[in-house]
Design a protein that fits this description.
four-stranded antiparallel sheet, alpha/beta, about 240 residues, six-stranded mixed sheet
């Protein structure tokens, strides 16, 4: 059974079709990248998993239960979530930010979990715990955001363009830190990105989206051989060939 199962997802914003009958299954341990241009439905689909977006039609099942039957707050606290801008609380230290979810869950070792998560994200707690987001580089802030998402040891991690605002070198470093962390924690991840090259590097499966639909799914190693039409265009734009 898939850890995440989306069936027939439909969502409109007025006359705009954001999701047009999308179905997707994510197995335990996978890292699925949702790839496509702005407006393709990637973020909308991602946000249905933790009920930040409600569907007009269709169903999202997480861990064998429909998300509509679950308490949304409890669901969101059980799933790691990294926004594009990190979403850190600016007047809290890195440690306080990292320990947020374990604290909300009432875990007695919340601070220890925060320290461990910072270290796992490549930020030594002894150096960074008492710093504030304004004292960090963009890449370091994004690592704190990843640490916060992972501190309660969720089995699912959602990431919405987590590296999109970073420069090339910082983006590479943050991306490699994510790969190492995801592998060691064995977390199931769904990642939104407009960068197909990035998806090829971090994902175990890629779902290409266009106009609210998934037009192609394949493991990274099969993309070049199977891509046609729009997916082939994305490969070409990324400097790759189909």
């Amino acid at each position: 059974m898939a850890l995440i199962q989306i069936e027939g997802a439909e969502k409109r914003y007025g006359d705009t079709v954001a999701l047009d009958g999308v179905s997707l299954r994510v197995g335990a341990g996978e890292c699925v990248a949702l790839v496509g241009e702005s407006g393709s439905g990637k973020t909308t689909l991602l946000r249905t998993i933790n009920r930040l977006t409600a569907l007009d039609r269709g169903e999202v099942v997480v861990r064998g239960e429909s998300v509509e039957a679950l308490d949304p707050v409890a669901l969101r606290r059980s799933i790691g979530y990294v926004q594009q801008d990190g979403g850190l609380i600016p007047h809290w230290t890195c440690l306080a930010n990292a320990a947020l979810v374990p604290t909300l869950l009432g875990l007695p070792d919340a601070e220890l979990r925060g320290r461990r998560a910072l270290g796992a994200a490549g930020l030594e707690a002894a150096v960074f715990a008492e710093r504030y987001p304004r004292e960090l580089s963009g890449g370091q802030r994004q690592r704190v955001a990843i640490a916060r998402a992972m501190a309660a040891e969720p089995d699912i991690l959602l990431m919405d363009e987590p590296f999109g605002a970073l420069d090339a070198i910082t983006r590479h470093e943050a991306r490699e830190a994510f790969i190492a962390l995801r592998t060691s924690a064995r977390v199931t991840a769904v990642l939104v990105t407009h960068d197909l090259g990035e998806a090829l590097r971090v994902a175990t499966r890629i779902a290409v989206m266009r106009a609210g639909r998934i037009v192609m799914e394949a493991p990274p190693e099969e993309m070049a051989g199977k891509a046609t039409g729009y997916a082939a265009e994305l490969l070409a734009r990324s400097g790759l060939s189909a």
